[in-house]
Write a structure and sequence with these properties.
It is built from 14 helices and eight strands. It is α/β, with parallel strands linked by helices. The chain has two domains: 49 residues; 257 residues, Alpha-Beta Complex (2-enoyl-CoA Hydratase, Chain A, domain 1). Strands 1, 2, 3, 4, 5, 6, 7 and 8 form an eight-stranded mixed sheet that branches. Helix 1 runs antiparallel to helix 2. The protein is globular and about 65 Å long.
């Protein structure tokens, strides 16, 4: 059924039965079906809770990629007012995989940067499925520079399988653009929060996620390479992606244990795509907490905290 992942098949089958009975009741059947509907709904809820209580890393990858999962522009629409996006990198052109600009969060001025995947065929093509070219990262640097100049906090929303690997991107300096963006994240003297809302893939994610605080949604993933890509390299078989996902430690829970990220934003049973409003509220709380925590820190303190955070990751993993 549409919207259900393969491992959610038991829930999809129960929902199909619920829909059939509901339609039967609406057609004016003489037999009361409310009791049976109640039992089926309870079974469906229990089945979904059971599935989501023991998701494997590969299943979490599929949830993170769910096409109905909220994307960057959904968060902007719900959490940011007066959003004014900037276009172009002042060097080559515009890249719509990365959107960046300024707006207000609860009345406070913020710079907002995000990777947008798109929600349908037209927008996915326009945003290149969230895979940015060099001009996208240079645009992010441009916005971070402006935020730093005017003392405006930066909010970054990460959702990409990775930077675009095409020839044109390499010709225009993809690696250098990613490095410059990562460098800028470390250098700015204003607070920066990064939230991995879906996929955090490779340098394409790190370029806008090297922040003072990094959070992940409960079923998001963050990795140096996709499970399929890693399996193709190490096992010569992309079909071993589920095994690779386990070995990579890409889940929010694994990365919190490794102290690579700083916290997890919970998702209700069934994932963010089923509970958009709840996830938006939880995200809003975390953004407000971050801005409050860093409100009275000096520029030097902000830069030092960020540097210490990433040096500590090396010490923890070493």
């Amino acid at each position: 059924m549409q919207g259900y992942l393969d491992f959610e098949k038991p829930v999809a089958e129960l929902q199909g039965k619920i829909d059939e009975l509901t339609n039967l009741g609406e057609s004016g059947g003489a037999v009361s079906i409310e009791e049976e509907l109640g039992r089926l709904r309870t079974r469906a809820d229990d089945a979904l809770a059971d599935i989501y209580s023991k998701l494997t890393p590969w299943q979490k990858t599929l949830v993170a990629r769910h096409p109905q999962r909220p994307h960057f522009l959904d968060y902007v629409h719900e959490l940011i007012t007066e959003f004014a996006p900037l276009a172009g990198d002042r060097k080559f052109g515009e890249d719509e995989a990365i959107l960046a600009g300024f707006g207000r969060f609860d009345g406070q001025s913020v710079a907002v940067i995000g990777l947008e995947k798109g929600n349908d065929t037209e927008t996915r093509i326009r945003h290149n499925f969230g895979s940015a070219r060099p001009e996208g990262y240079r645009k992010a640097v441009r916005v971070m520079d402006l935020a730093d100049r005017f003392n405006i906090p930066v909010l970054s929303f990460v959702d990409t399988a990775g930077a675009f690997p095409g020839v044109d991107a390499e010709e225009r300096g993809q690696a250098e653009a990613i490095a410059r963006s990562t460098e800028k994240c470390l250098a700015i003297g204003v607070p920066m929060l990064a939230i991995v809302i879906g996929e955090g893939g490779s340098g394409g994610a790190i370029a806008i996620a090297t922040a003072n605080r990094v959070l992940m949604l409960q079923h998001a993933i963050y990795s140096v390479i996709s499970p399929e890509g890693g399996a193709s390299i190490l096992f010569k078989d992309a079909g071993k992606a589920p095994e690779m996902a386990i070995a990579q430690k890409i889940t929010a829970q694994d990365l919190l244990n490794l102290k690579v990220i700083d916290g997890i934003i919970s998702e209700p049973v069934g994932g963010a795509h089923r509970h958009r409003e709840s996830v938006m509220k939880s995200t809003k709380v975390e953004i407000a907490r971050f801005l409050d925590d860093f409100a009275n820190m000096s520029r030097d303190q902000i830069i030092d905290q960020r540097a210490d955070k990433y040096l500590q990751i090396g010490r923890n993993l070493g």
